């Protein structure tokens, strides 16, 4: 349970850092970041495993780098579900995914 809460906090911090670093990434209210962290955690539990399984051949061909694309798609899905979070496109979502991946690397490995 504590690990799940820490992952949600890491997601929130990743969204916040990306919004501070890239002015194009905006949020209407700080609660949008809280919801984004929570929704990203749920999306990663429910949708990501299916995508990872379906894209396994591509992941093997790219030596796992396609995982970044899957993470980006999860961020885009989260942004589309959260009304107050505005991520303008794929590359900005890619940056958010990188921020969250780096934070996860520091906290969970």
What order do the helices and strands come in, and which of them pair?
Elements: H1 2-21, E1 26-27, H2 30-46, H3 48-54, H4 56-61, H5 66-81, E2 85-86, H6 90-108
Antiparallel strand pairs: 1-2
Task: Explain the overall architecture.
By secondary structure, the chain is mostly helical. It has one domain. The protein contains six helices and two strands. It has helices spanning 2-21, 30-46, 48-54, 56-61, 66-81, 90-108; strands at 26-27, 85-86. Strands 1-2 form a two-stranded antiparallel ribbon. Helix 1 packs across helix 2 and helix 5 packs across helix 6 (90-108). The two termini are 18 Å apart. 29% of the residues are buried. It holds the Pfam family Phage_holin_4_2. Keywords: Membrane, Transmembrane, Transmembrane helix. InterPro entries: Phage_holin_4_2. This is Putative membrane protein. The chain crosses the membrane at residues 5-22, 34-56, 63-83, 89-108.
Q: How large is the share of residues in beta strands?
A: under 5%
> What best-fitting shape do the alpha-carbon axes yield?
globular
Question: What percent of the residues sit in helical stretches (DSSP H or I)?
Answer: over 70%
Structural class: mainly alpha
Distance between the termini: 18 Å
Number of domains: 1
Low-pLDDT residue spans: none
Please state how the strands of the largest beta sheet are arranged side by side: 1-2
